[in-house]
Amino acid sequence: MIGASGYGGLQTVRLIQSHPHLRVTFLGGHGSVGRHWRELAPFLDPGPDLHVAQPDPDAIAAAADLVVLSLPNGQASTLAPALLERGLRVVDLSADYRFPRLEDWRQVYGGHGAAERADAGLCAEAVYGLPEFNRQAIATARLVACPGCFPTTSLLALLPLLQAGLILPEGIIIDAKTGTSGGGREARRHLLLAEAGEAVAPYGVEGHRHTREMEIQATTLGRSRPLRLQFTPHLLPMVRGLLATVYGQLSPPSCAAAQLTSHFLDTYRHQPCVDVLPVGVYPSTKWVRQTNRALLSVATNPHTGQVIVMAALDNLLKGQAGQAVQCFNIMLGLPESTGLPLAPFYP
Amino acid sequence: MIGASGYGGLQTVRLIQSHPHLRVTFLGGHGSVGRHWRELAPFLDPGPDLHVAQPDPDAIAAAADLVVLSLPNGQASTLAPALLERGLRVVDLSADYRFPRLEDWRQVYGGHGAAERADAGLCAEAVYGLPEFNRQAIATARLVACPGCFPTTSLLALLPLLQAGLILPEGIIIDAKTGTSGGGREARRHLLLAEAGEAVAPYGVEGHRHTREMEIQATTLGRSRPLRLQFTPHLLPMVRGLLATVYGQLSPPSCAAAQLTSHFLDTYRHQPCVDVLPVGVYPSTKWVRQTNRALLSVATNPHTGQVIVMAALDNLLKGQAGQAVQCFNIMLGLPESTGLPLAPFYP
Amino acid sequence: MIGASGYGGLQTVRLIQSHPHLRVTFLGGHGSVGRHWRELAPFLDPGPDLHVAQPDPDAIAAAADLVVLSLPNGQASTLAPALLERGLRVVDLSADYRFPRLEDWRQVYGGHGAAERADAGLCAEAVYGLPEFNRQAIATARLVACPGCFPTTSLLALLPLLQAGLILPEGIIIDAKTGTSGGGREARRHLLLAEAGEAVAPYGVEGHRHTREMEIQATTLGRSRPLRLQFTPHLLPMVRGLLATVYGQLSPPSCAAAQLTSHFLDTYRHQPCVDVLPVGVYPSTKWVRQTNRALLSVATNPHTGQVIVMAALDNLLKGQAGQAVQCFNIMLGLPESTGLPLAPFYP
Amino acid sequence: MIGASGYGGLQTVRLIQSHPHLRVTFLGGHGSVGRHWRELAPFLDPGPDLHVAQPDPDAIAAAADLVVLSLPNGQASTLAPALLERGLRVVDLSADYRFPRLEDWRQVYGGHGAAERADAGLCAEAVYGLPEFNRQAIATARLVACPGCFPTTSLLALLPLLQAGLILPEGIIIDAKTGTSGGGREARRHLLLAEAGEAVAPYGVEGHRHTREMEIQATTLGRSRPLRLQFTPHLLPMVRGLLATVYGQLSPPSCAAAQLTSHFLDTYRHQPCVDVLPVGVYPSTKWVRQTNRALLSVATNPHTGQVIVMAALDNLLKGQAGQAVQCFNIMLGLPESTGLPLAPFYP
User: Fold this and answer.
1) Could you tell me which residues of chain D have a Cβ less than 8 Å from any Cβ in chain A?
2) Average pLDDT, stretch A195-212?
3) Average pLDDT over residues D304-326
4) In this structure, are residues A256 and B176 in contact, taking their beta carbons and an 8 Å threshold?
């Protein structure tokens, strides 16, 4: 586990603690080198009996078979090549390998240091870690790029419609609502409780960097003609949870919610981490809080021919660390939800 | 003030307390008859020195010139005719007079008792209390039907575009996010902190009863051809505040955000309770918390030809009681924002 | 499981779902008879495949060996005798059997119907279900009365000091802070998010009904001379969690925090559900959220000779349903924390 | 106004905006020099038409008669002497002048740079800005040191008892609960919504730096023999608000709540910003949110001879900026609550 003290790292370690077949054998980091896990997380007991170490590839290879990278964008790609060379299999939680073409990554995340990346080959090889639509490729992958919370939620809502040609690719809107833990554990003013509490506001309305990733994957995995999306994230006064409300034009416009729900049920019938709600029951993020489960519901507006898909998940589990463990399970040939909580402690 | 103990009543009394030209002279209610205001609101000091009384029209007429009705839907219309006969001017916060045609109201709110209403004439006479687009009619009205928080926010966002023909009437989507106080002060399970805290969920996705009201007013006040809207409200874990994110297709599709913002600035230049933010600055509900001000921001997606208008207000002030006082000010020839807070105590 | 739809019932069913040796075979209730579990809890999948039934003792005895009663105070005692007669073992989450003398219960909870209770024998037989201080009695009990969140937290903080005579019995203060889920799932105005959000207030400051229970148990389990407590609960704007800050006079007054911490560590060394933090590290309710673990920390004020014990737990698990499962584990001879989560998903 | 962009500065500017006799004529700061107020606070409209400038004493003296210093501890004392020399009257919101003896300040806040302070004379001259107990001295003061939220709340609760000898000075406990805005606007991890949300925890349990200030002022203003306090602050998941629950031993122990309440009513009868609630009504921070009002309630425990005083206020108004304006009003001979909100917009 590299990047131990952020929320992604905390969740991953916590999940592995109760996983019957995985164990944390190396904790890598930068800011907290030399500190014991116990200091970083006095609330996780018993945590791994480990100190945080510099992420040296040889040391990692000596200790582990699988690596999760939970590092800021642009840093995973400085480490992944060396890990793969040493025969490790890598699941990356950053955006570094989510674009099959390095050039696309550069356009979105470019800037400081982006010019130096020369791993276009790995970008092409990396497998997009959305198990429900990419299981086979994940099973044999050396390098998996897990989508984050926004693309996971949005793609789970959109792909069944795109694949079946039930939605027009033009004019699709994703209105997303997220808790503040999605912004990470670094102290930033707008994520203070005093600022974000009792407030809701949109951000990144024009050209959010997740938009391009979703457009590319919606086209690829959705087997659709190229499309452009409007993606509008909103910051909500809660810790965890992500809800995406996805709008589009039905094709044909008269398609009924019951029919669409039935199609979604078919699509996700054998997916242990995705459930489809009955028509008229809408998902709450609270129903999936601290689980690796996504809940979907489909509605239609017969007056306008629009479809509305609502998708809820926990941004730090199915939207981040849980998805990584789900990918590990697939890579190891284990039942896909091994060690993953699927039912919440409500409320 | 009739309907004193709900949130609408509390806000109205509080606003009038610091209003230089209004005074609360009668408190009417049902559940709390005989109780002193001080018991209902130990936190409002000094509140009016009044006991809650049965809303008898003669007693009201003897005590007051203006009446605010803050009653459940269907009840205002049992009282308003008698009040108007006695020469009182009435501002109603319920939906009873928001539809020019009684028949439309029946379709949406019909059910128990709806058949008995026989005040189609008053429905036709009542003025829709959205000051920014109906000031002149409000000034001379006997009966004003104030729009609630969802229609106010949505119409402030939509009308400038519709009036100028800058948006296609087809396919407009209103994705709204509201605090739980919009659900009123009656104890209901889904509004408990334990249920609504740390959660976001959509509700009323298909055929919410505010949709029809917005469609009719958007057509009338927006001088548009008839339109159908997709309106999706979401319940958020906060007390106050409403944000509407409104999506539509631009006409022409290449219109720029700066140009649209300029049009919004023109529209609202002389409106003391509405402000337009610069391009790229998005409104937080916290910026208008406990004020009678609405904040708007306009963005565009050049790839898709879509416009995104974001509108924030306080659901209990500009979305309810503050708007009633704003209407009173207009009816009395006072400066429109008299006694109304416009700047928040942040955070 | 009797009383399925409240928070106690929800937690119990959820815990049993992932318990390796327990299974829900009967769901009893009053308000929701005939409804399927799936309707009550669409978020718990897969829940038990059961409909809620009237809690008929014969039907319960036919289906189950162990019963959890999660009913309002005064109702458990109308059912427990019949269940015990049929050879079932019962864990009660209400206050009905927490007082060894029925008379004490009557003084605190008396009123409607209290006069009719004639099960003084069962009151005397019932075992107080605080495993850390009553394990042996629980192991062989027919009837266990689990303490709720406030007494559990307070007694875990106080008993080590009382047993060792390190605190004066006079003048002890328990200042407790609780999330709103402790108030149950029934809709009540003061528990609405709009009311309880962004607020803190004390309640029941004089003679809260938990005070007497704590006084009796502190005397009995603490082997102390009779004592009177000041207990002040506060309602906090959060869903789950309970923190008690307990104050008293040290005996001798010069006792150091390190020494007391060492004594607490000794006391709880073999208790899997209680941990003691190092001096200077104070517990957050978030560190135990959705776990069955209590965290304690001890501080002293050398200027005043006071001891301050801080204790945090999850009010619905270690403070309610988790404690019931912990008692079941003991009654069945299983490892005490079987099926109980001890590490949180932070944040 | 010096220190414009923190919460203290924001509140002060907002209050002055609606004050009939004060105007902001100079905005000083460090981090944000050169920026226009409008950028710092897009939500405050119309704010002062000013840019933030270096706090040069001559420039300040040229622009203003009164100065509010809202700077980090240790910085006010580098500026105040020069301002006083130029004839300005200063209200300081930091701790720099809250101790009559510089030596006491050094002991508590000492460390980097503390040794350099040589303004012991000013420390002795400065008036402690608690209007309810120090009005006359404030009226003529050149330099007022406003107490912050914890001492204000605690002293309002304690002083009536101490002055009348109704409480023993030994063993007093202040258990305080505060919203996160009290921690300021600087980004710090533990104040993130993701960390502080859905959590309560104590901090600074041993030797919090406010304790000494309260002890000294309780002795001085309370006309008591020297006393030592136990002060335990807790961080709560809310933006604003402070509740102190104060415990002590009554003298005589049989004193009744009604009698004590009557004494409190007498003490605060002519204080416009403090109200005393009837016996059995306990204050919520929500009842004073965004007001300059403190609410008190007194209870007793006849079994233990203890008194419990509960005091609630808004930490940023009566606990900070509102108190500064209250002091200004007194210094200018204005009615004390001029321009200060006293009634909340509930909820």
Assistant:
1) 7, 179-181, 183, 185-189, 191-198, 237-240
2) 94
3) 98
4) no
Question: What is the arithmetic mean of pLDDT over A230-246?
Answer: 98
Q: How confident is the model at residue D112 (pLDDT cuts 50, 70, 90)?
A: low
Do B127 and B143 meet the contact criterion of CB atoms below 8 Å apart? Answer: yes
For residue A284, which residues of chain C lie inside 8 Å, CB to CB? 43
Q: What percent of chain D stands above pLDDT 90? A: 89
Is D259 in contact with D328 (CB distance < 8 Å)? Answer: no
Give the whole-angstrom CA distance, residue C203 versus residue C178: 11
Q: Do A194 and D187 touch (CB under 8 A)?
A: no
Residue A114 φ/ψ, nearest 5 degrees: -65, -30
**ipTM of this complex prediction, to 2 decimal places:** 0.96
Q: Could you tell me if D304 and C170 are in contact, meaning their C-beta atoms sit under 8 angstroms apart?
A: yes
Our CA angle for C299, C305, C310, nearest 5°, is: 25
Shortest alpha-carbon distance between residue A181 and chain D (Å): 5
CB-CB contact of C251 with C167 (8 Å): yes
Contact A185, A242 (CB under 8 A): no
Residue C112 scores a pLDDT above 70: no
Which residue does chain C place closest to B178, by CA atoms? C194
Neighbours of chain D (3+ CB pairs under 8 A): A, B, C
The three-point CA angle B140-B146-B147 to 5° equals: 135
User: Are A247 and B249 within 8 A, CB to CB?
Assistant: no
Report the pLDDT value the prediction gives residue C207, as an integer from 0 to 100.
Answer: 84
Give the Cβ contact number of residue B135 at 10 Å.
Answer: 15
Distance between CA atoms of residues C275 and C338, nearest Å:
17
Q: Which is nearest to B201 in space by CA: D328, D222, A283?
A: A283
In this predicted structure, what is the pLDDT of residue B115? Answer: 74
Mean pLDDT of the region B1-14: 91
Q: Could C346 and A44 be called an inter-chain contact, meaning their C-beta atoms sit closer than 8 Å?
A: yes
Residue B289, min C-alpha distance to chain A (Å): 9
Pairwise CB contact (< 8 Å): A299 & B238: no
Catalytic residue, from A146, A149, A255, A327: name it: A149
Nearest to A7 among C198, C281, C347 (CB): C347
Nearest to C299 by CA among C258, C336, C339: C258
C321: nearest CA partner in chain A? A345
Q: What percent of chain B has pLDDT over 70?
A: 99
Q: What pTM value is reported for the model?
A: 0.97
The terminus-to-terminus CA distance of chain B in angstroms comes to 31
Of B179, B183, B193, nearest to C180 by CB-CB distance is B193
| pLDDT of A115 above 90 | no
d(CA A150, CA A294): 12
User: Looking at chain A, which subunits does it touch, using at least 3 CB pairs closer than 8 Å as the criterion?
Assistant: B, C, D
pLDDT in tens, D1-13: 999 889 999 999 9
* CB-based contact A198 B310, cutoff 8 Å: no
Cα(C322)–Cα(C273) distance, integer angstroms:
10
Question: Residue A148: how many CB atoms within 10 A of its CB?
Answer: 20
Contact A185, D192 (CB under 8 A): yes
- Please give the pLDDT value at position B324: 98
Q: What pLDDT does residue C231 have?
A: 98
Contacts of C294 in chain A (CB under 8 A): none
CA distances from D322 to D4, D19, D242, D319, D329 (A): 15, 11, 14, 7, 11
What's chain A's average pLDDT?
95
Spatial neighbors of B332 by CB under 8 A, at least 6 apart, are B21, B66
Q: Which residue do the tokens 């709540």 mark?
A: D257
Residue C38's Cβ-count burial label (10 Å; 0-12, 13-18, 19+) is: middle
Contact B189 C185 (CB under 8 A): yes
